[in-house]
Amino acid sequence: MSGSPTAYLLWSILACLFFCFLIFHLWNYDRFQCLRWSQSGRQPGAFKRVMSYTYIATLIFLMIFTVAFTFIKFREGYIIISERTLYPTPIELYSQSHKKWILPLLFLFSAAWACELITHWEELTFWLFLLHQGPKTRRWFDSWEFRVWLLGTVVAGVGMPLTTLISRRELDTCQAWIFLVGSSASTATTLLFLYVLVRFPQFIRRVKEDGGEPSIVLRLVMFYQLNFARVLFRFLFSLPLFVLAVDGVQGYHSINQDPFWSDFLIMLGGIGCFVSSFITLLIFFPRSLTQELGYTTTLIRPPIVNKSQITVPDGRHVSPKHVPVTIVRSASAHTSEFSQGDDTTPEYEPEDSANITHAHSCDGHTRMRRQAREQIQDEEAPPADGQYIDTPYMFDRHSGCLVRSHSDGLAIGLHPYVRDLIVCNQNVSCSVTGPNISIANRYM
User: What contacts 24+ positions apart, CB below 8 Å, involve 92-100?
Assistant: First the structure.
């Protein structure tokens, strides 16, 4: 195997930067409580601890290997193989003081790759366990997925160091054999993960239909998007190293002897390795800024309507199932009271169950909120300032104004973004114009 010192320098920089981010992330996650063996903390259980340790061990081993290997590469430098052609010094030509460290570093590298395979194999089998859950609840430790993971763990934990041990006689090809076995296993695991990505949307819909909590559904959607990106970067990690490994174990090394393609493929593999590890960190230890800032996600059931479609203020027709039903509330906010002096922005975060995207408040889409109010003895009395009525509103295209579906004579309640509130009666109507939502009076 070839590769210039500069190519491995990129691996070292990425490893050190990611290790610093790992410390920062775990400190903000739970102050390193997730690394303790005790049952307390946000992730109790010995099995989760084992998976956390194997993942962190992968990063530590990779950082040590890349920094030490880069240092030796730079100290050994290049050799001249032809006129105006430099080639990285082969391992067989290293000085004895540096050569004696190569085999221990390769064992460390194989151990790091073994831990990486164990971690991602566990993820694959556990997601398969969740996707295959039927009406009858199964236990993880009694499932066939756990036995498959256990078998894969033994094969990876023994196979990678054994590869280094068998090929240790020729250090130049030893790294190529490690790349070949490790990249083949990583590519196979990533290909199997495509099955999880195909089945995952159906799994999310099933959780929603079973009445799953909004926070759980949102986290599953986030996991699906992160896993989709991670699969792409894992291919970017394993496939370039597989190409280098196949060329390295053959007789004629056309790719490894090319200064451009050898460095290019090694750099691609390093980028894919640490970006996919970064995404794994976000999946293993997911931070929730909503909870850390003291907010909770609440599900509000949409009202039952007889019409097949609901007209929203921007003129679009949506079905009742697409009505925004999720809001994020402050943990200290009162649902039955509202003060105009309070900041309403954190309280009002509607989410469309079919399309979780938030339009800006000034993009032309009028936002409205329905808030429960106390029962009033006099039904004709208008609501207090800042209170909103449960009656749905529609946008009349012909008159260009907001109207009630049932004319009961009560004042309408608009979103707090509407700065002026004008009570509408039979002689006055309110029209919403422009993206800034201005109120204009129009007398009949």
Answer: 92/171, 92/172, 98/72, 99/171
User: Where is 52: in which H helix or E strand?
Assistant: helix 46-76
Q: Hunting for tokens 């010995």 — which residue is that?
A: 46
Between CA 56 and CA 49 the distance in angstroms is 11
H or E, element range at 432? strand 428-433
- Give the model's pLDDT for residue 292: 73
CA distance 190 to 233: 10
**Cα dihedral across residues 163, 164, 165, 170: positive or negative:** positive
Residue written as tokens 């493929």? 265
Q: What is the pLDDT of residue 394?
A: 53
Strands (E), 334-407: 393-396, 401-404
Considering only CA atoms, which of 240, 251, 192, 331 is closest in space to residue 3? 240
Alpha helices in 132-213 (DSSP H): 144-166, 171-209
The SS3 of residue 7 is helix
Rounded distance between C-alpha atoms, residue 155 and residue 307, angstroms: 60
Residue 217: per-residue pLDDT:
87
Per-10-residue mean pLDDT for the chain, 444 residues long? Answer: 88 96 92 74 63 92 96 91 81 90 95 94 91 82 91 94 92 91 95 94 88 84 92 96 92 84 94 94 84 70 53 51 47 39 32 37 36 40 46 53 47 38 38 38 38
Query: Would you state the pLDDT for residue 375?
Result: 40
- Provide the whole-model pTM: 0.66
Q: How far apart are CA 233 and CA 387, in angstroms?
A: 50
| The token pair that represents 397 in the structure block | 């295209």
Helix (H) or strand (E) holding 72: helix 46-76
**DSSP code string of 270-332:** HHHHHHHHHHHHHHHS---HHHHTTEEEEE-PPPP-SSS-EE-TTS-EE-GGGS--EEEEETT
> Three-class SS of residue 359?
coil
